[in-house]
Write a structure and sequence with these properties.
The structure is a single chain. This protein is of the alpha/beta class and about 400 residues long. The protein has 10 helices and 17 strands. It has helices at about 35-40, 80-100, 115-120, 175-185, 205-210, 225-235, 280-315, 325-335, 370, 385-395, and strands at about 15-25, 45-50, 55-60, 105-110, 125-130, 140, 145-150, 165-170, 195-200, 220, 235-245, 250-255, 315-320, 340-345, 360-365, 375-380, 400. It has an 8-stranded mixed β-sheet. It has a 5-stranded parallel β-sheet with strand order 15-14-13-16-17. A hairpin with a 4-residue loop joins strand 11 (about 235-245) and strand 12. The longest helix is centred in the C-terminal third of the chain and has 36 residues, at about 280-315. Bound molecules: zinc ion. The site of zinc ion has 8 residues, from loops.
């Protein structure tokens, strides 16, 4: 077992154990066409530590070689209208920031380029590059204004100048975030005025909501506003604004290069400052939240075991959402498929497949009536309205239970 006891963000050795789980599936969004394969998938250990100096939480037993973000990886959430509206509003925010400045953008870890397409729909003058080793699709789009590179972005691409860099939901998958940021920093050596936008889950939201299903193997790095700004400061960036978005679940950080000049267009201070005087106070707050989470965690486990038992006894429950939360929930509370009948997901690419780790069948909501489903457990409160609407439109005889 690899074990890294030194904080990968601030290099402090003052780290302490926070959460341990054995035999967790290494992937949340792997597609499996057979139940046997889904159950037999690769597993790893969660051995999360928290840093007392910066509040960063990370998996000290993470092994990157276990992961494979290849063709069978499908994490598109844009089949949900609510999620699509959310990413559209982010795209509009970036397009707004481009007004009166250069319009060259780079997306680091563009996946299937869904977000870049949303962006490029908004501005005909935008040009840019999508970087992702697992990108599959045409090499260019929008008459060559958008180009794709099947590689990690880094210093060897420094000749590509950029005004904006966006990186969404990547850094939480990286065991050495300072190295990733340093590499992006070097790649921008010819783009001194570039603004950098990062999006990642907020660990304080997870802790406050005792969201036990939000800790899983793919995410080896969990950031608070303070540890995120510390990682950027350690990498030579100047952190501007950090905001909570997606009803508090995600962080949105804007940064510029340290020597980017006064016209870099970024506020010197945001909601959370980087490297300020109250460093230990901010780290201690995360540590307090982590302690309180640990005290509540076993009660949450007991509550959900009981709840699932009751639902399965009186009816036939399903889980809505085969994303990271749904996969982790099913693996924690129904690893042998004894209580949850199936998982509902709006992504047609997932329907007909089987859930990583447990092998629960993944179905479309149109099957719920035929399957006799009575109750649906909603994995993300942000989709409540949308699920209620679908249930009403299709007269599904289901009761909705929210995770809380
Ligand atoms: Zn640290």
């Amino acid at each position: 077992m690899n074990s890294n006891l030194q904080c990968p963000v601030c290099r402090s050795s003052q780290t302490e154990p926070f959460l341990s789980r054995r035999g967790v599936p290494v992937h949340q969004n792997m597609l499996f066409r057979s139940q046997e394969e889904a159950v037999a998938m690769k597993r790893g250990e969660l051995h999360l530590l928290i840093c007392e100096q910066c509040g960063f939480i990370y998996n000290a037993s993470f092994e990157p070689s276990k992961l494979d973000y290849g063709a069978a990886y499908n994490n598109s959430q844009n089949f949900s209208p609510a999620f699509h509206r959310y990413t559209n509003s982010l795209a509009a925010h970036i397009a707004q920031r481009m007004k009166g400045s250069g319009k060259r953008i780079i997306e680091v870890g563009c996946g299937k380029a869904t977000f870049l397409h949303q962006l490029f729909e908004l501005d005909e003058e935008m040009t840019g590059f999508g970087f992702d080793p697992s990108y599959e699709g045409p090499e260019t789009a929008y008459n060559g204004r958008l180009r794709f590179v099947k590689d990690n972005y880094g210093p060897k691409y420094e000749s590509i100048q950029a005004d904006f860099v966006v990186c969404r939901h990547v850094i939480e998958h990286i065991p050495d975030p300072v190295r990733l940021l340093g590499s992006i920093r070097k790649a921008l050596s010819h783009s001194p005025h570039a603004l950098v936008f990062f999006e990642t889950p907020c660990v304080e939201w997870i802790l406050r909501h005792t969201a036990v299903w939000d800790f899983f193997y793919e995410h080896c790095s969990y950031f608070s506003p303070f540890s995120l700004s510390t990682a950027f400061a350690e990498s030579g960036f100047r952190t501007g604004q950090i905001r909570h978005i997606f009803q508090g679940q995600y962080l949105w950080l804007e940064a510029s290069l340290e020597h980017g000049g006064k016209d870099s267009g970024i506020a010197a201070e945001g909601e959370v400052g980087g490297g300020g005087g109250d460093r230990l106070g901010q780290a201690a707050e995360t540590a307090n939240l982590a302690r309180a989470y640990r005290e509540r965690e076993s009660a949450v486990f007991a509550r959900w075991r009981n709840r699932l038992f009751e639902l399965a006894h009186s009816g036939k429950p399903a889980v809505w959402g085969a994303g990271a939360k749904g996969v982790t929930f099913a693996n924690l509370f129904d690893p042998h498929r004894e209580q949850i009948a199936c998982i509902v997901d709006a992504n047609p690419g997932k329907q007909g497949g089987f859930l990583p780790g447990t092998g629960h069948p993944i179905v479309s909501y149109t099957e719920l009536r035929r399957l006799g489903i009575t109750d649906v457990l909603l994995m993300n409160p942000n989709y409540k309205e949308e699920v209620l609407q679908i249930a009403e439109n299709h007269r599904l005889p289901i009761k909705l239970t929210e995770l809380e």
